[in-house]
Amino acid sequence: MLRHRILNEAARSKIMSAQQAARLIESGMTIGVSGFATGFPYAVLMAMCEPGGPRGLTVLGGAIGSEEPFPSMTNTGVMTRFYGWQRCRELRYKLNHGEVGFIDVHLGQFAGKIRKGDYGKLDFSVIQCMKIREDGGLVPALAAGIVNALVECSEKIIVELNTSLSAELEGIHDFGLNPEKRLVSMLDRLGDDFLPCPPEKLAAVVITDDVEERLPTRDTNEIYEGIAASVIRCLRRETESGRLPKDFTLQVGTGGVANAVLQGLREGGFKGLSMFTEILSDSALDFLDSGVFKEATTTALDLSPEALDRVTANLQTYKSKLVIRPLDVTNNAKRIDDMGLVGMNTVVEADIYGNVNSTHVTGTNMISGLGGSNDFSRSCKLSIFITPSTAKNGNISCIVPMVTHHDSTEHDTDIIATEYGFADLRGKTPKERALLIIENCAHPDYRGLLRDYFGEACKATRGAHTPHILHKAFAFQERLARLGTMKDG
Predict the structure, then answer these.
(1) Is residue 398 within 8 Å of residue 391, measured between CB atoms?
(2) Which of 208-222, 301-315, 378-392 has the lowest mean pLDDT?
(3) Same domain, 149 and 261
(4) Catalytic amino acids?
């Protein structure tokens, strides 16, 4: 088994336990971690959390979740500074209480910043792989993320070889960057399907057979289905008018709204689309099978064991339909432009002029991070931001006079969609945008308040380009802080 997995003799001589590998890392170091929603080196990271393990590490990761090992790394003090995107409850609590440093980054620029040395020396990276080639090249697990930059820039590499993944999956990756080559198809190859790794970099090889825990995907509901219906109406209008080809390329995440949109595409008769995205989940795999999508590029296959078994049993078919690429391809402005992409991303709140807040509660508390939403919205053919019209049982309006934190500006927003409809902001002045968003996207309970604010702002500023009354611009959020609701009276 090991000779089939580890073809390089020098690598076989570095086999050790997770605890032995963890002891190679010293407190205060900066380390990289492979994975993007999946593909994390569980055994070595959990071994770090044991008594006597390293503490106070700065960790660079693509997108981490609430699954172990990250809660334990946060709670034990192994990780006290993190760069990337996160959805870890424990980390979120500590970073919003000043106990852990967090730096939010554009995921499409992350690898480039690592290569430039923006985060200092990278002492170690811990990489989950499914094979080590005869020449020492690494075949990573099913998440590319920033793994290419980590292998390039780390002083030392610890490989966690996961034998639960079929070695036959080799060939599903493409790690080429080749800025001269235009991507015409998802399946175009830009380079190698492995990562070169000089033998002197390899510090340890740890053998595991862990099957990763997966958090359940949020179910769809009536509101999500309403948002999806708004998005589908928008896309149908675009294709019927000829502004968007019928076989367009879509970027969409995971979760209830995304699933509802994908279901709406199938029910609406859309066929032969392409997917260019960060995460491909079970539901997206189903739509690839059904022909809604003909091909896909993703930076991670976040699949249940059952779906992964399906891929493994039909490898040649899936290798002809999908490619796993690093973030500096999937989130690269040139590649997004090549694809003529429709980008769909969620927001916390949007204001009446089209600015959006994707990351913060009332402008102060971080939720997860920016992720790739800016990468897509700035470079795609059609930028769609989606949100329910309200939150917290209707006590919060997700359409407000002014957002409390800017992640994407009005200049990168083409469409805002809620369960009540969509507002097409292209070619519209700020005041025209305000009227469209209020009437088409806001919840009926808040339209009157928004109309009142906008009308008063127009009068007070005597028709200014972007009317605002600064001492009232955050009245919705201030009312929420005082009364627990944004409703007036």
Answers:
(1) yes
(2) 208-222
(3) no
(4) 278
